Amino acid sequence: MERTSLLDVSPFTVLEYIRSSVEILMSMKEDTSSSLHGDSQKSLLSEHPRNYEEMIRKFEEESREHIRLEQQLKLYIDDMQEQIDNSEKSSKQLKETLKLKAEEIASLKERLNDSLVKCDEMKRKIEILEKKHLIEESEKALQIQIDKSQANKLNDFNKLKRMRVKRADNDRMQTVKEAIAG
């Protein structure tokens, strides 16, 4: 029970217990050697320090083991803290990169939307120009037809006029022939 409770205590506290135990033993040894003078009592005293020495060696050994483990844990904790710091740094860099990429995407979307709006405007302008062109072509074709029609009418009119003039000439000739003949 005491051994498990000692495992929970820091190594420096255990060393302090050991030092205190040694001081108590030393004082007990001095007290017992001055008060006891028999052979049987000397043998008892010689056995107690051996047990205590053995216990002290065990405690020292356990303390060294605790110190070694504590140092290993500190190294492990330092290594883990370094890994955590590196991970946090990487995470921060990734978040900044992600933020920049998101801003870049938003900018590209805005440019795309502007381009789509301009494209729609260009389509409308092209449609208007195509309609104007069709109207102009239709007007030209109509004007050509009108011109041809007027030219045909003018030709017909000129033919008619010539025919009238010819008829008038023929009539005059007939009148002159009748007047000569008659």
Structural write-up:
This protein is 96% helix and 0% strand. The protein starts with a helix and ends with a helix. Helix 2 (11-35) runs antiparallel to helix 3. The protein is rod-shaped and about 200 Å long. By secondary structure, the protein is mainly alpha-helical. The chain contains 3 helices and no strands.
β-strand amount: under 5%
Number of helices: 3
Using only C-alpha atoms, the radius of gyration works out to 64 Å
Query: Which H/E pattern describes the elements?
Result: HHH
> What's the number of extended β-strand segments?
0
Detail the poorly predicted runs: 37-42
Main sheet specs:
none
Q: How far is the first residue's CA from the last residue's CA?
A: 176 Å
Outline? rod-shaped
Structural class category: mainly alpha
Mean pLDDT: 82
Helix content: over 70%
